[in-house]
Amino acid sequence: MKCRDVVSHPPITVTPDKTLEEAVELLANHDVGLLVVVDRDNPRRPIGVLSERDVVRAIGWKAPLTVTVREAGTFTGLIYVYADDPVEKAFEVMMKHNIRHVLVLEQNGNLLGVISIRDLAKFCKLSSG
Ligand code: AMP
């Protein structure tokens, strides 16, 4: 099975100028644990991520809800797989980097979606029958 078979898409995205408050609203309303940060001019190009973990960290540091996604998110070392990679590759990178989400890109670098640990749990259930 390939990553494209388990990916959740379309991804829930946010732009870096939004506030933490707006981002939390998106996380809650869409029942996801990660937002993909995209360029306003090119919504298929991921430039960062903001996960629940980042929200917890920001609140732990007493940041106000008015801080921007740019300040609270992760913008370096984006971790991704390609849609045609085997799904085991998604497991591998999550374990290696200790993250619960991995971006899934098309061969041309466009964002297809996100695989979360929850998607992989569903995949395990399916394959164990
Ligand atoms: P997570 O366990 O996936 O909720 O996230 C843990 C930390 O890793 C947070 O600081 C995220 O911003 C970061 N993170 C999560 N997924 C990715 C990814 N695909 N690429 C880079 N950083 C990520």
UniProtKB/TrEMBL annotation:
PROSITE patterns in the record: CBS (PS51371)
Keywords from the UniProt entry: CBS domain
Superkingdom classification of source: Archaea
Pfam family, one: CBS
UniProt cross-references to Gene3D superfamilies, sorted A to Z: CBS-domain
CBS domain: residues covered: 7-67, 74-129
CDD domains in the cross-refs: CBS_pair_arch (cd09836)
Name of the molecule in the record: Signal-transduction protein containing cAMP-binding and CBS domains
Species the sequence originates in: Pyrobaculum oguniense (strain DSM 13380 / JCM 10595 / TE7)
